[in-house]
Amino acid sequence: MSKFLDRASEFLAHRKGLLPIIGLILILVNLLIQFIVPGSLLATSNLFLHLGLIVAIFGLMLAWAL
After folding, report:
1. Does 5 or 26 have the greater pLDDT score?
2. What are the extents of the domains in the chain?
3. Which string of DSSP letters, residue by residue, matches 11-57?
4. Per residue in 9-52, pLDDT tens?
5. Which residues 6+ apart lie within 8 Å of 34 measured at CB?
6. In whole angstroms, what is the distance from residue 3 CA to residue 42 CA?
7. Is the Cβ–Cβ distance between 19 and 26 less than 8 Å?
């Protein structure tokens, strides 16, 4: 677990904007799902919206720390 965290922190230290961009992409995917399949479970639960928001906030906090 320690080696994984070391590799992940080294990888993300050089790419500080990667996680916020992935979060924004997930939020945009949620917007597209709202229009493509409006009655589906993914559209009503806003899964990608919540996941994207968590990933983006975590990415900003991590980028600030690194």
Report:
1. 26
2. 2-65
3. HHHH-TTHHHHHHHHHHHHHHHHHHHSTTSHHHHHTHHHHHHHHHHH
4. 788 778 888 889 999 999 999 999 999 998 888 889 999 999 99
5. 43
6. 35
7. no
Q: Which residues, 6+ apart, have CB-to-CB distance to 53 below 8 Å?
A: 23, 27
How many Å apart are CA 15 and CA 24, to the nearest integer?
A: 15
Residue 35 CB partners (closer than 8 Å, separation 6+): none
Tokens (6 digits) for 14: 């050089």
**Three-class SS of residue 66?**
coil
Tokens of 39: 């009655």
What six digits make up the tokens of 47?
């899964």
CA distance 27 to 37: 15
Residue 20 CB coordination number (10 Å): 18
